[in-house]
Amino acid sequence: MQSALLEAMEERQITLGDQTHALPSPFLVFATQNPIEQEGTYPLPEAQRDRFLLKLRVEYPTRDEEREIMHRIGGGHMPDVNKVITPAELLRVREVTRRVRVDEKIERYILDIVFATREPKTVPGLDKWAPLFEYGASPRASLALLNCSRCHAFLRHRGYVTPEDVKAIGPDVLRHRIIPSYEAEAEEKTVEDLVQAVFDHVEVP
């Protein structure tokens, strides 16, 4: 299962027996992780998790949201799903987002954030957090922050990236790429705490 997942993500194809099938473009790979059901499951190695662009946290629904779930699922009536965009249009949007301007100051800011996760001792104020970082983010994190910040700016109808775009999307990009140390676990510091510390101490341009 994991090998098929990685083949799809990296090579954009799947292999069944002796036949290889190209995946359509665009396509998305989603995976779920339930933190209370680890028995009998094998967590993905860190290098494989790094291939995922984002890791989103999904909390419990609110009372109103859960009531809506009850009505939709319990009532037996599923809402109609209407197409809002075609694959060709989505590919054009992807090309447009690549033209969203990223100033050199923003590029340096992204690099400062990623390198702070690897070398927290070099960042004033973050140095006291250094023992809590086992491993920092990989070069994929820099690319992900760059591309996702562009998309965030595009969705807000801007043709340029601001530090707020980087900060808004940063936790989703970094939370599965930073590995806390045993000392962090002993101090009950989560990866969310480490990510927040990075953004709190890296200077904003």
Summary keywords:
205 residues; mainly alpha; Rossmann fold; Helicase, Ruva Protein, domain 3; 2 domains; two-stranded antiparallel sheet; 9 helices; globular
Mean pLDDT across all residues, rounded? 89
CATH level-two architecture of the largest domain: Orthogonal Bundle
| Weakly predicted, low-confidence segments | none
How many H/I helices?
9
Q: What is the beta-strand fraction? A: 5-15%
Report the span from N to C terminus.
43 Å
Q: In oligomeric terms, what are we looking at?
A: single chain
Shape descriptor reads globular
Share in helix: 40-55%
Provide an overview of this structure:
This protein has 205 residues and is mainly alpha-helical. It folds into two domains: 2-74, Rossmann fold, CATH 3.40.50.300; 87-201, Helicase, Ruva Protein, domain 3, CATH 1.10.8. It is 47% helix and 6% strand. It has nine helices and four strands, in the order αββααααβααβαα. The strands form two sheets. Strands 1-2 form a two-stranded antiparallel ribbon. It has a two-stranded antiparallel sheet with strand order 3-4. α5 packs across α6 (139-155) and α6 (139-155) crosses α7.
